[in-house]
Amino acid sequence: MDRKKPKIITIVSIKGGVSKSTTSLILSTLLSKKYKVLLIDVDTQASVTSYYFNKIKEKEINLIEINICEVLKGDLEIDNAIFNIESNLDLLPSYLTLHSLNEDFIVKIDINLLI
Questions:
Q1: Which residues does the UniProt record annotate as the domain AAA (predicted)?
Q2: Is the CB of residue 95 less than 8 Å from the CB of residue 71?
């Protein structure tokens, strides 16, 4: 089986209010018209996840238990945190507790990986 490597597009900036979430939403929606897309929300404000709140509510997803924060902590397998939003578009949601991981991960970073 010859599988193509997935393309990864990252939209990131330290500055707030520069349309990172809006760009992510529009780009993922457009790409999902032709390709399978996994939209990963790693915003501590969960802006992309909030945009899909009604669909999340319809699917009865408990964001407190199912989000990228739980995956990063090792409390949830990534496959169990991804769910379908619409045709060809899946979401790995964020949650407001994601900000609490920042300090934990800084302590665990191996300095050799940074050199």
A1: 7-109
A2: no
